[in-house]
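Before going further, learn to read the protein records used in this course. Taken together, the tokens spell out the fold as the letters spell out the chain. A record is reproduced here so that you can trace the correspondence yourselves:

***
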Amino acid sequence: MKMDKKTEEFYIRLKEELTNTSIWPSEYLYKFIVPSDNHKIAEVEAAFNGLGAVITTQQSKTGKYTSVSISVHMKNPDAVIEKYQELSTIEGIISL
């Protein structure tokens, strides 16, 4: 996957932060905002199938967006970043 420099720098900083603030393997909480489209929400949830993730969703007041929180046991910072990169291909997704 080709990344722009800003995105690449973000992932480098994230990896450093994760390495310095957690003992791995560790629980990690992903938070995403996606358009309230059942297919897109299902895509996010499917990315964590088989990982024992706890997934909660909450629709915005207007119903236009859905917040998806995923608590999951990840083996290391690289695995966390790989998931972010995998999900970044979903149209309209915002990673928090």
